[in-house]
UniProtKB/TrEMBL annotation:
InterPro entries: Rieske_2Fe-2S (IPR017941), Rieske_2Fe-2S_sf (IPR036922)
Regions crossing the membrane: none
Protein name, entry field: Nitrite reductase [NAD(P)H] small subunit
Protease in keyword set: no
Domain Rieske: 5-99
Organism: Fimbriiglobus ruber
Coiled-coil ranges (or none): none
Length: 105
């Protein structure tokens, strides 16, 4: 298990919405969908758009610029799973939302 860091509090992320947090100088989008938290890199690997600004449907966020779709569960591009954005395990401890970071972020 990598380093675990607190990034927000329960209640900071609206249900069905997202927030952006900075972790080690990188923007990470934290989503709350049907009571489950997910976290992926906020920048689309295609053109750099903020994924937190995209709509979420069926566990997939759609990039607001060019409509690339990424699965919240693993960060994979829905049309070609070999292309991925960073994805983080989310833990809730008390009222803290924590991200498990890989060895390199």
């Amino acid at each position: 298990m990598g380093q675990v860091v607190a990034v927000a509090r329960v209640g900071d992320v609206p249900d069905g919405g997202s927030i952006v947090v900075e972790v080690n100088q990188k923007d990470v989008a934290v989503f709350l969908v049907d009571g489950q938290y997910y976290a992926i890199d906020d920048r689309c690997p295609h053109a750099g758009a903020s994924l937190s600004g995209g709509g979420v449907e069926d566990g997939v966020v759609t990039c607001p610029w060019h409509y690339w779709r990424f699965r919240l569960t693993d960060g994979a591009w829905a049309d070609n799973p070999r292309i991925k954005t960073g994805c983080y395990r989310v833990h809730v401890a008390g009222d803290e939302i924590r991200l498990e970071l890989p060895d390199r972020v």
